[in-house]
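Example record for the data management plan.
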Amino acid sequence: MPQSSEKKISRGITASVKFLTRLIVWGGCFVLVFGGLYWQRDAVARYALLSYLHKNGFPAARLRHIDVEISSLNVTKLKLSDDIRIDDLRADFHFTPGDDYPVFIDRLLLDGVSYQEAPLTEDAAETDIAALLREAFTLAQKLPLNALDIKQAQISLQPRSLYLPQQITIAEAQTYVKNITDRIDIKAVISAKNNDSIISTALETALYQNGEVAADITLRDESVIRHPLAKLSNISGAAHIVLKDGLITAEKADMTIGTAQLVNLPLENITLSYTDTNEEKILKAAGKSPGDIAGFNAEFNFNNANELSGKAEINAENLEKFYALGKESFSSFENFAIIENDLKDIKGSARLTLNFSGKKALTEIKADIATWQDFSGKLQIAAKDLTLPPYLHKTAADIKLHFSHNADGILLFPESLTVKGQTGVDKTSFTLKLDPNPNTTHLLLKNAGDSIDIRLPQLQLSYGKVLDYTGGVTGTVNRTASTFTLTEAAGRLNLPAQKIIIDLYEATAKGGYHNKAVTKASVKTAITLPDNLAPVLRADADLNYKAEKGLLRFDSKLRDQANHANAHVTGFITPATQKGEINIEMPPVNFDPVGTQPHHLSPKLDGLLQKTSGSAAFSAKLSLPDLRGKGQLLLKNLSAEISGKPLTNLNAALDIKSLMPLTLEKQTVAIESFNPGIPFFGGLVTLSYDAAQPLPLTLHNAEWQMVGGTVSFADVKLNPAKPDTAFTVAVHDLSLQQLLQFAKVEGLKANGMIGGTLPLRLAGNEIFIENGVISTTTPGTVQYAPHDLPAFLQNGNPNMDFVRNVISNFHYESLRFLLDGKAGGAQTIRLEAKGRNPDMAETRPVALNLNLEGALENIFQHHVQAYTIPDNIQEKIRQYEEKHVPSP
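Corresponding structural encoding:
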């Protein structure tokens, strides 16, 4: 073998030995180094991890145990800081030599993650959510991480408000970083807790590189929300939410709430639906109370032009149960205590429907409605069998209102308004209607409804058979101050039962409607009484209402338009019960034949009383609402012609038992004289009057003084307006001598007493005597021996000579007058007498028959007798004047 070959082999062997030697040495070193590292791999990993955390913002990081394998890492009880802890961390990885990150984490699993937020020292600044998400995405995309699983995490936050959660729990979270599609997918079960509220959701979301987010959220049934104003449970539903252009938008959401309490008002089966398209947003809601007592549904629409519209309906089928369910809720409202007692017995059903549209930015939707543009809509309220003691009973209501934007606020125009039912106290039927006029009728809400301008000119109110009102009001209501001002009112009030009409032509008022309010008003009216009982009366009244006592007092001056008479009217009424009292005082009215006459006070007396003198005064007390009551009428020295028949010096203080209808019971008047065709003198008449009867006037007894005797009649019923009746006048113990003295017949003397009856028949204004007989009660004498004989005794007839002789000294056994004919007109008066003249030789009785046409009435007409008012009537007059007539 050549030497050179050997050398080559030798050199090759030497080189190989050297290489093997080196390989063994370096291999041994490598084995020793890396064997040591592998043997101490946990300590090395612990040191490396903590060093990395200390240098990157977690200087206080600690961990309890770390375990490293070929392709996995496990960390137990990792504390990053005082507020961040992880119970278990596991990372599955593989080596990627030559890459930026030589180790790539296939999956990172976290369990028992907790975060405790430090106490807030100042309000946090607003955060750009999109920018924050883009930064997080960029950071996550750079990490050598494919998937992150969080088995359990709990985040505790400091309380900021009632609406933000204080504790968030994340379970079964899975995060996948997809670099190819530039997105991160996250799935998790997230629960948020605030006090007693819990929201449990299943979340699937995609986070994109540009900061946009698309999330599908499913609410779980165990979700519960508790808030001072609402308690919601059994919440379920789903929503698709996106974050785009920095705005969070729910493109579609559907939610069902099993049970709820809104300020303690129980509801159930509430459904919510929300849809957001590129053109508009639509929100729908519906629900009901337990037992279908009440329900609601609503829909609202918003578009990109800031145009809003909506409709809502609330229906309560049983207000009694609905109020019982929600009483605690209603009690939280301002001023509820004022109406709580009124609502406690509410019954019936009601429905409210609202449609509206307007223009307002969605971010400013809570602003004052008056600031909306083109705001308009319609409100409808319908009620059936509504009972609200003590105000309403079995009442139906139908109210429709249009509303629109106005330069000064919101203008409400009543399209129709009808309320019909019964009052709560006495079950009286009533109807309230409004006949709107587009040019004059409105309600104007100003300052967010704090004040309301009212103009309602065509109201109609019918209250049983008690009153009918047609008219209107203009005024202002201040809701904040609970006050109102009535600047104008006009209308007609009709009292059908009393046939009274009150025209209200001017009214002002100022007051409030809170429980301490005092309202003062001034009204001017014209009052028309029935049957021409009085002329149209002017009334100027001051009203004072105290809400705390529920009492309305009034003080009014009453007068006729020509100022012939005036009266002072005072009283009170309790509106809740409609009960009250009216006091009327009319001072004495002095009548003058050429001035004030009774028909100026009561047109009904026109033509009945004329040429009147004397005075009259009146006082009365009436009860409300029936206008019944008592009164007194004072008549002093009243003289007049009654349908042309003279009456002189009537005096009385009459107690009026009832004014509506006018009723007097057995009242006595004193009359100096009255000549309805037969003259009566010095009379006392006891009478009754009942306007409700067809024959209202009853003359119980009328007694007149005449020549030592009396003329009387009793129990006469008649209608003064149509005095058609018949009765008998009794004549007692009249002195024949005194009667003949008033006849002023020269040479005529007589003695004896006469009496009898005069049957009278009244026909309109005329009186007829039918077969009246007045006769002597004892024998007597008649002597007629004039100086100049009348013509009928002067002729040469022998029979007349005999008559002259007989009557010169006629001793009668019987004597009577027979009367027939019209009183005050043509009468037939026949004198029949039997007797003889003892001075004549003829001893046989003589029957004397004479026709004395008109003679007897002439005797009565010239009778004059002293007139004295009885003491009892004078005393009643004195008492009345002392109480009701002020001293001059």
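Summary line stored alongside the record: Residues 1-28, 30-34 have pLDDT under 50 and may be disordered.
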